[in-house]
Amino acid sequence: MQALRRTLLPFVGFALVIALWWLTAVSGVVGERNLPTPAAVLDAGWTGLTTPDGLLVDIRLSVLRVLIGVVVGCALSLPLGFLLAWFPTTRAMFDPIVSFCRALPPISLSPLVIIYLGIGEDARLFVLIWAAFFASVVVLYEGIAAVDDIYVRAGRALGASEFEIFRRVIVPATVPQMFVAVRVALGVSWATLVAAELIAAQRGPGWSIQRAASFFRTEDVYAGIILIGFSALLMDMGVRLVQRRAVSWQERVVR
Amino acid sequence: MTGDISNARISFDDVRVGFGAGKKRKEVIDGVSFDLGPGEFVSVLGPSGCGKSTLLNMAAGFPATDSGEVRFDGERITRPESRRGVVFQQYAIFPWLTVEKNIAFGLTLKSNRRSRSEIDETVRRYIDLMGLGGFEKALPKELSGGMRQRVALARAYATDPDVLLLDEPFAALDAQTREFMQELLHEASRAERRATLLITHSVEEAIYLSHRIVVLGNRPTSVHEVIDVDVPWPRTPQSRLQPEFLEVRGHLEGVMRPLSGSTLRKAQT
Ligand SMILES: Nc1ncnc2c1ncn2[C@@H]1O[C@H](COP(=O)(O)OP(=O)(O)OP(=O)(O)O)[C@@H](O)[C@H]1O
Ligand SMILES: [Mg+2]
Predict the structure, then answer these.
(1) Would you tell me how many other CB atoms lie within 10 Å of the CB of residue B42?
(2) Second label for A193, Cα 20 to 30 Å away, from A140, A187, A233, B246?
(3) Phi/psi of residue A174, each to 5°?
């Protein structure tokens, strides 16, 4: 019963929103040109995905960009996050800089990046890696600082060396936080990528939405947005699936 | 003061501790001295917040001393080591490890490394001793509070420490589980004959398990009284009804009441 509710209720939520959307669209209060019906959007999405060199290519491109950004960004942030957080000196030294870079919206770097790297793929990947790195490094950082001191003391009392405390207590205790870091990086990367594509790109869903909008093809705009949302959601669900297996030891508050 | 510490394992020598600085300075421990001899079981009783955990942590090797010192076999304690096993007041078993891996943890460290077969054997022994059979592969989240504390005890025993330091290990348990755990601990400490320092709030528990009981006073804390417990050894559930037991209990309850009473009054003002 519980399981049924958990799998079913999200669909009910989606269904409700779609129903509301449909009603609003057919009621005509906002005008058919401005708000297409779900069916029209579905149709536009299907056409976009099935035409050669259409939406599917754009989405694939974005997924690939986000994946590269997140994988490289997190591959850098995991070891560096530990390094920075573990030593009080490096922590005190770099904490403000990391916070600064994290607070800076990655998209604001694009003019500079364009100067140095041009407007090609390199530039986009650089911004994405940057975004993923700083988003995840901060989460990781805080995760390490939040490891309950009682486990560290228990480890020491059992005879663990500094390195053993790090490897056998801090690292495993931070694994849940690593997944949070990856998920945050995913979210930030999607946001950054689409924003970048809206401004300047040759391909990608952001670009295709922009183009559709300039031709007033609202159903294509909606289809693009929904497709981006689902791609991001699917990637997030993928990470969560791995997370649930990897940190099954975690006690969760079940309500 | 360098008292004669001939054969004490742990000795507290005029320990003084305060926290904070300036106006916020709060003296917590004001000259506590007592010894824990080899094979001896000593309990520390005292009102809440009087500094019991602070004392135990110092013996474990997490320093807080302002003056005086805590010694282990005559040497000043400066850092934790596995010769002094600890069970903390909070649940401190690693939630990411199974029961058997928690128990084996100390034996897989560089300072204490044993062979695979030795580890398996030790883990087996303490799983049996603590009645954890069938839960070898269980994660802490699947265990009751009493079982978690048994894992913590087993983990502390497994590295074969010279001294055990136990900080209210059964405080969170219901009365029945608590008595069961006391009997278990009594059996284990008889079988192992380890010097043990137990911190507790429970007069019953202290009498049941100890050779000696150290009663601490209110903050700033000093030793209020030391009592030798003459209840015959080994203790059984029947011991709780023996005249010696009841006499010590009556006495201790008389001593403790005004102590905890004044803590409460202080807390109210
Ligand atoms: N690191 C610290 N900084 C400031 N004050 C502290 C610190 N550690 C302990 N104290 C204070 O010292 C006093 C004694 O603490 P401690 O935990 O040793 O008491 P306790 O006797 O174990 O209490 P309980 O029976 O409730 O466990 C408390 O008033 C506490 O607030
Ligand atoms: Mg305490």
Answers:
(1) 23
(2) A140
(3) -95, -5
Residue A251 in any domain: the answer is no
Enclosing domain of residue A233? 39-246
Residues of B in Cβ contact (< 8 Å) with A149: none
Predicted TM-score (pTM) of this structure: 0.82
Distance between CA atoms of B191 and B188, rounded to whole angstroms? 5
CA distances from B220 to B7, B39, B49, B64, B267 (A): 29, 30, 10, 15, 15
CB contact under 8 A, B96 and A168: no
A78 and A126 within one domain: yes
Residue pLDDT, tens place only, B25-63: 888 888 888 999 888 999 999 888 888 999 999 999 987
Does A11 lie in the same domain as A133?
no
Put simply, the answer to whether B82 touches A158 (Cβ < 8 Å) is yes
A2 and A119 in a common domain: no
Kindly report the CATH number assigned to the domain that includes residue A189: 1.10.3720.10
In eight-state DSSP terms, residue B221 is: B
Instruction: Count the domains in chain A.
Output: 2
